[in-house]
Amino acid sequence: MTIFLMFLLLGSIAGILAGLLGVGGGLVIVPMLTFAFTIEGIPHEHILHMALGTSMASIIFTAISSLRAHNRRGAVIWKIVTRITPGILAGTFFGSWIAAQLSTNFLKVFFSLFLLFVGTQMLLDMKPKATREIPGNAGMFGAGGIIGIFSSLVGIGGGTLSVPFMLYHNVTLHRAIGTSAAIGLPIAIAGTLGYITNGFGVNGLPSGSFGYIHLTGLCGVAMASICTAPLGARLAHSLPVKNLKKIFAILLYGVGLKMLIGAL
What we know:
The protein has 10 helices and 2 strands; from the N terminus they run ααααααααββαα. By secondary structure, the chain is an all-alpha fold. It has one domain. β1 (about 210) and β2 form a beta hairpin. The longest helix is centred in the N-terminal third of the chain and has 29 residues, at about 45-70. The protein is globular, with a radius of gyration of 17 Å. It is found in: Cell membrane; Membrane. Its main location: membrane. It is a multi-pass membrane protein. InterPro entries: TM_pro_TauE-like (IPR002781).
Protein backbone atom coordinates (compact mmCIF):
# COMPACT_ATOMS: atom_id res chain seq x y z
CA MET A 1 0.00 0.00 0.00
CA THR A 2 2.86 2.39 0.81
CA ILE A 3 4.42 1.81 -2.60
CA PHE A 4 1.05 2.27 -4.34
CA LEU A 5 0.56 5.59 -2.52
CA MET A 6 4.03 6.54 -3.74
CA PHE A 7 2.90 5.75 -7.28
CA LEU A 8 -0.14 8.01 -6.81
CA LEU A 9 2.01 10.88 -5.55
CA LEU A 10 4.44 10.35 -8.40
CA GLY A 11 1.64 10.46 -10.96
CA SER A 12 0.25 13.67 -9.47
CA ILE A 13 3.60 15.43 -9.78
CA ALA A 14 4.22 14.06 -13.28
CA GLY A 15 0.83 15.18 -14.56
CA ILE A 16 1.30 18.74 -13.35
CA LEU A 17 4.79 18.94 -14.84
CA ALA A 18 3.64 17.56 -18.19
CA GLY A 19 1.07 20.32 -18.54
CA LEU A 20 3.02 23.12 -16.86
CA LEU A 21 6.55 22.83 -18.22
CA GLY A 22 6.18 20.70 -21.33
CA VAL A 23 9.17 18.61 -20.23
CA GLY A 24 7.50 15.23 -19.92
CA GLY A 25 6.70 13.62 -16.60
CA GLY A 26 9.28 10.90 -17.25
CA LEU A 27 12.03 13.14 -15.88
CA VAL A 28 10.36 12.66 -12.49
CA ILE A 29 8.72 9.28 -13.04
CA VAL A 30 11.85 7.31 -13.96
CA PRO A 31 13.98 8.25 -10.87
CA MET A 32 11.06 7.72 -8.49
CA LEU A 33 10.10 4.40 -10.09
CA THR A 34 13.73 3.33 -9.84
CA PHE A 35 13.62 4.08 -6.12
CA ALA A 36 10.24 2.32 -5.66
CA PHE A 37 11.33 -0.77 -7.61
CA THR A 38 14.51 -1.01 -5.54
CA ILE A 39 12.40 -1.04 -2.37
CA GLU A 40 10.13 -3.66 -3.94
CA GLY A 41 13.13 -5.92 -4.52
CA ILE A 42 13.07 -6.12 -8.31
CA PRO A 43 16.40 -7.55 -9.59
CA HIS A 44 18.94 -4.80 -10.25
CA GLU A 45 19.48 -5.76 -13.89
CA HIS A 46 15.80 -5.09 -14.68
CA ILE A 47 15.06 -2.03 -12.54
CA LEU A 48 15.75 0.72 -15.06
CA HIS A 49 14.20 -1.18 -17.96
CA MET A 50 11.03 -1.54 -15.87
CA ALA A 51 11.17 2.14 -14.90
CA LEU A 52 11.57 3.26 -18.51
CA GLY A 53 8.83 0.97 -19.81
CA THR A 54 6.37 1.87 -17.06
CA SER A 55 7.13 5.57 -17.53
CA MET A 56 6.36 5.27 -21.24
CA ALA A 57 3.07 3.51 -20.55
CA SER A 58 2.02 6.12 -17.99
CA ILE A 59 2.75 8.94 -20.42
CA ILE A 60 -0.03 7.60 -22.69
CA PHE A 61 -2.57 8.74 -20.10
CA THR A 62 -0.73 11.95 -19.21
CA ALA A 63 -0.40 12.92 -22.88
CA ILE A 64 -4.08 12.32 -23.65
CA SER A 65 -5.18 14.45 -20.71
CA SER A 66 -2.60 17.18 -21.34
CA LEU A 67 -3.15 17.44 -25.10
CA ARG A 68 -6.92 17.73 -24.63
CA ALA A 69 -6.40 20.61 -22.22
CA HIS A 70 -3.96 22.38 -24.56
CA ASN A 71 -6.15 21.71 -27.60
CA ARG A 72 -9.10 23.40 -25.92
CA ARG A 73 -6.91 26.51 -25.74
CA GLY A 74 -5.96 26.21 -29.41
CA ALA A 75 -2.30 25.53 -28.55
CA VAL A 76 -1.81 22.35 -30.62
CA ILE A 77 -0.53 22.66 -34.20
CA TRP A 78 -1.92 19.44 -35.65
CA LYS A 79 -0.12 19.85 -38.97
CA ILE A 80 3.19 19.46 -37.15
CA VAL A 81 1.88 16.50 -35.13
CA THR A 82 0.74 14.54 -38.19
CA ARG A 83 3.94 15.19 -40.14
CA ILE A 84 6.37 14.30 -37.36
CA THR A 85 4.49 11.22 -36.09
CA PRO A 86 5.82 8.63 -38.61
CA GLY A 87 9.40 9.39 -37.60
CA ILE A 88 8.40 9.46 -33.94
CA LEU A 89 6.86 5.98 -34.14
CA ALA A 90 9.84 4.45 -35.95
CA GLY A 91 12.45 6.09 -33.73
CA THR A 92 10.74 5.34 -30.43
CA PHE A 93 10.14 1.67 -31.21
CA PHE A 94 13.74 1.28 -32.37
CA GLY A 95 15.00 3.12 -29.29
CA SER A 96 13.17 0.72 -26.96
CA TRP A 97 14.93 -2.18 -28.68
CA ILE A 98 18.29 -0.46 -28.14
CA ALA A 99 17.47 0.07 -24.46
CA ALA A 100 16.66 -3.63 -24.03
CA GLN A 101 20.20 -4.50 -25.15
CA LEU A 102 21.86 -2.16 -22.64
CA SER A 103 22.67 -2.76 -18.97
CA THR A 104 20.91 -0.99 -16.11
CA ASN A 105 24.11 0.80 -15.10
CA PHE A 106 24.68 2.13 -18.63
CA LEU A 107 21.08 3.34 -18.81
CA LYS A 108 21.47 5.00 -15.39
CA VAL A 109 24.55 6.89 -16.55
CA PHE A 110 22.83 7.90 -19.80
CA PHE A 111 19.70 9.02 -17.96
CA SER A 112 21.74 10.95 -15.36
CA LEU A 113 23.68 12.81 -18.05
CA PHE A 114 20.40 13.61 -19.79
CA LEU A 115 19.01 15.07 -16.54
CA LEU A 116 22.10 17.25 -16.17
CA PHE A 117 21.72 18.41 -19.78
CA VAL A 118 18.05 19.29 -19.29
CA GLY A 119 18.83 21.01 -15.98
CA THR A 120 21.48 23.15 -17.66
CA GLN A 121 19.11 23.94 -20.51
CA MET A 122 16.45 25.13 -18.07
CA LEU A 123 18.76 26.93 -15.65
CA LEU A 124 20.38 28.99 -18.40
CA ASP A 125 17.07 29.38 -20.23
CA MET A 126 18.72 28.11 -23.38
CA LYS A 127 16.44 28.57 -26.38
CA PRO A 128 17.39 28.21 -30.03
CA LYS A 129 16.91 31.31 -32.14
CA ALA A 130 13.82 31.14 -34.31
CA THR A 131 15.54 31.42 -37.65
CA ARG A 132 14.04 28.64 -39.77
CA GLU A 133 10.75 27.37 -41.11
CA ILE A 134 9.31 23.90 -40.46
CA PRO A 135 11.26 21.42 -42.68
CA GLY A 136 9.81 19.16 -45.36
CA ASN A 137 8.58 15.61 -44.90
CA ALA A 138 12.06 14.06 -44.94
CA GLY A 139 13.34 16.55 -42.38
CA MET A 140 10.32 16.01 -40.15
CA PHE A 141 10.76 12.22 -40.34
CA GLY A 142 14.41 12.53 -39.37
CA ALA A 143 13.66 14.93 -36.52
CA GLY A 144 10.88 12.64 -35.28
CA GLY A 145 13.20 9.63 -35.41
CA ILE A 146 15.88 11.35 -33.33
CA ILE A 147 13.35 12.64 -30.79
CA GLY A 148 11.78 9.17 -30.58
CA ILE A 149 15.07 7.33 -30.01
CA PHE A 150 16.23 9.63 -27.23
CA SER A 151 12.76 9.70 -25.64
CA SER A 152 12.57 5.90 -25.41
CA LEU A 153 16.07 5.68 -23.93
CA VAL A 154 15.14 8.02 -21.07
CA GLY A 155 11.42 7.21 -20.76
CA ILE A 156 10.03 10.67 -21.50
CA GLY A 157 7.32 12.17 -23.68
CA GLY A 158 9.84 14.08 -25.77
CA GLY A 159 9.10 17.62 -24.62
CA THR A 160 12.72 18.43 -23.78
CA LEU A 161 13.60 17.82 -27.43
CA SER A 162 10.43 18.64 -29.36
CA VAL A 163 9.87 22.03 -27.70
CA PRO A 164 13.36 23.39 -28.63
CA PHE A 165 12.92 21.92 -32.12
CA MET A 166 9.70 23.87 -32.62
CA LEU A 167 11.07 27.06 -31.07
CA TYR A 168 13.96 26.87 -33.54
CA HIS A 169 11.38 26.71 -36.32
CA ASN A 170 9.43 29.83 -35.35
CA VAL A 171 6.71 28.23 -33.19
CA THR A 172 5.70 30.32 -30.16
CA LEU A 173 6.44 28.90 -26.69
CA HIS A 174 2.86 28.15 -25.60
CA ARG A 175 2.03 26.48 -28.94
CA ALA A 176 5.29 24.53 -28.81
CA ILE A 177 4.37 23.21 -25.36
CA GLY A 178 0.84 22.34 -26.48
CA THR A 179 2.04 20.63 -29.66
CA SER A 180 4.70 18.78 -27.66
CA ALA A 181 1.96 17.38 -25.44
CA ALA A 182 0.25 15.96 -28.54
CA ILE A 183 3.54 14.55 -29.90
CA GLY A 184 4.01 12.79 -26.56
CA LEU A 185 1.11 10.44 -27.34
CA PRO A 186 2.68 8.58 -30.33
CA ILE A 187 5.98 8.54 -28.45
CA ALA A 188 4.33 6.88 -25.47
CA ILE A 189 2.36 4.37 -27.56
CA ALA A 190 5.36 3.25 -29.63
CA GLY A 191 7.61 3.15 -26.56
CA THR A 192 5.11 1.10 -24.58
CA LEU A 193 4.72 -1.44 -27.38
CA GLY A 194 8.50 -1.64 -27.70
CA TYR A 195 9.11 -2.24 -23.99
CA ILE A 196 6.32 -4.82 -23.86
CA THR A 197 7.70 -6.68 -26.87
CA ASN A 198 11.32 -6.61 -25.71
CA GLY A 199 10.36 -7.63 -22.17
CA PHE A 200 8.55 -10.83 -23.12
CA GLY A 201 10.41 -13.96 -22.07
CA VAL A 202 12.92 -12.12 -19.89
CA ASN A 203 13.69 -14.08 -16.72
CA GLY A 204 13.43 -12.47 -13.29
CA LEU A 205 10.70 -9.92 -13.97
CA PRO A 206 8.21 -9.47 -11.08
CA SER A 207 4.80 -11.10 -11.13
CA GLY A 208 2.12 -8.82 -12.50
CA SER A 209 4.43 -7.29 -15.06
CA PHE A 210 3.62 -7.14 -18.77
CA GLY A 211 6.93 -7.22 -20.54
CA TYR A 212 8.86 -4.34 -19.01
CA ILE A 213 5.64 -2.68 -17.80
CA HIS A 214 4.94 -2.77 -14.04
CA LEU A 215 1.14 -2.87 -14.03
CA THR A 216 0.62 -1.77 -10.40
CA GLY A 217 2.97 1.17 -10.87
CA LEU A 218 1.26 2.05 -14.13
CA CYS A 219 -2.20 2.08 -12.52
CA GLY A 220 -1.11 4.34 -9.67
CA VAL A 221 0.76 6.80 -11.85
CA ALA A 222 -1.91 6.90 -14.56
CA MET A 223 -4.81 7.41 -12.15
CA ALA A 224 -3.19 10.45 -10.58
CA SER A 225 -1.66 11.99 -13.71
CA ILE A 226 -4.99 12.02 -15.56
CA CYS A 227 -6.40 14.23 -12.82
CA THR A 228 -3.48 16.64 -12.53
CA ALA A 229 -2.34 17.16 -16.16
CA PRO A 230 -5.19 19.62 -16.95
CA LEU A 231 -4.23 21.59 -13.83
CA GLY A 232 -0.68 21.88 -15.11
CA ALA A 233 -1.94 23.10 -18.49
CA ARG A 234 -4.03 25.81 -16.81
CA LEU A 235 -1.12 26.87 -14.62
CA ALA A 236 1.12 27.18 -17.70
CA HIS A 237 -1.00 30.14 -18.82
CA SER A 238 -0.95 31.95 -15.47
CA LEU A 239 2.31 31.20 -13.58
CA PRO A 240 5.88 32.47 -14.15
CA VAL A 241 7.04 29.33 -15.94
CA LYS A 242 10.60 30.66 -16.40
CA ASN A 243 11.16 30.94 -12.66
CA LEU A 244 9.61 27.54 -11.98
CA LYS A 245 11.87 25.95 -14.58
CA LYS A 246 14.95 27.25 -12.77
CA ILE A 247 13.80 25.68 -9.50
CA PHE A 248 13.04 22.43 -11.30
CA ALA A 249 16.47 22.57 -12.95
CA ILE A 250 18.17 22.54 -9.54
CA LEU A 251 16.13 19.47 -8.58
CA LEU A 252 17.18 17.75 -11.80
CA TYR A 253 20.82 18.42 -10.94
CA GLY A 254 20.36 16.80 -7.55
CA VAL A 255 18.58 13.72 -8.91
CA GLY A 256 20.98 13.39 -11.84
CA LEU A 257 24.11 13.57 -9.69
CA LYS A 258 22.67 11.08 -7.18
CA MET A 259 21.86 8.54 -9.89
CA LEU A 260 25.23 9.08 -11.59
CA ILE A 261 27.17 8.51 -8.37
CA GLY A 262 25.08 5.41 -7.65
CA ALA A 263 25.73 3.97 -11.10
CA LEU A 264 29.47 4.60 -10.95
